Amino acid sequence: MGPVCSAQKRKSKAHEQKEEFRVSNQPCLDATSLAGQSLPLELKNQFGLEDSVQNLMKLFKRFTMFLDLVGNLDQLPQHTRDKLNNCIVIKQNISIIIQNNVKRVMREQQIIKRIDESDYYLIFNDRKFASTLNQMMSKLSNVILTELKPDEDFQSAFPILAVSFEEEAEKINNIVEKLKNNINISIRKGSSQHSISINQQQSNRKASQQ
Q1: What is the structure's pLDDT at 30?
Q2: 3-state secondary structure the chain
Q3: Which carries the bigger pLDDT value, residue 100 or residue 203?
Q4: Which is nearest to 60 in space by CA: 95, 89, 84?
Q5: Tens of pLDDT, residues 20-60
Q6: Res 192: pLDDT
Q7: What's the average model confidence in pLDDT over 88-92?
Q8: Mean pLDDT throughout 90-94?
Q9: What does the angle CA 179 – CA 61 – CA 53 come to, to the nearest 5 degrees?
Q10: For 119, how many CA atoms within 13 A lie in the half-sphere containing its CB?
Q11: Is the pLDDT of residue 69 over 60?
Q12: Which of 20, 77, 198, 204 has its CA 20 to 30 A from that of 32?
């Protein structure tokens, strides 16, 4: 029995060494080897949400810069001042929304630090924030295109800036529509999964009662 056991052990050890050699010589699975593979639908939607929110926030930053160039409103007619003040109020509300949502996510993730612009990435994938931002940016572009664009006093006072306002508003509208579709897909997917879960629970209860 002794020689037989020794032979089996040697055979087993040789097999293990062969397996280790085979595994160690396998090519590494790096990012480039995955480049041609398609992403799951939920990840594509997630990346779409992130891109749209990030682009929308870039446009908000650009619009804020353009709005600051308007300067003193005292020389403008009252109706034009009211429209620009409306834009300013929306801009301030969006800034508050951004800050509050970053604080919320940082609190959820137990991150303790002062908020700066580099922390905004925390809310790029936040569907709740995306929905609110989308509504506010849509409201902003609507004011620009339906109120400021037809305003001759605004157009004559800021001929170049008025064009920039309109261009930014059009870009905002394009992203708003994409983001709205992305959010709707995400909501439908979540509702579908919730319904499946409820149906499964009901089936399990019926099975346990039988």
Answers
A1: 34
A2: CHHHHHHHHHHHHHHHHHHHHHHHCCCCCCHHHHCCCCCCHHHHHHHHHHHHHHHHHHHHHHHHHHHHCCCCCCCCCHHHHHHHHHHHHHHHHHHHHHHHHHHHHHHHCCCCCCCCHHHHHHHCCCHHHHHHHHHHHHHHHHHHHHHHCCCHHHHHHCHHHHHHHHHHHHHHHHHHHHHHHHHHHHHHHHHHHHHHHHHHHHHHHHHHHC
A3: 100
A4: 95
A5: 444 344 333 333 332 333 334 444 445 578 899 999 999 99
A6: 45
A7: 97
A8: 97
A9: 20
A10: 17
A11: yes
A12: 20
CA distances from 94 to 15, 87, 168 (A): 65, 11, 16
Give the span between the Cα atoms of 177 and 181, in whole angstroms.
6
What is the C-alpha to C-alpha distance for residues 87 and 93, in angstroms, rounded to an integer?
Answer: 10
Query: What token pair was written down for 152?
Result: 């001759």
Amino acid type, 127: R
- Backbone phi, then psi, for 135, in 5-degree steps? -65, -45
What is the rounded average pLDDT for all residues in the chain?
Answer: 77
- Tokens coding 12: 């087993």
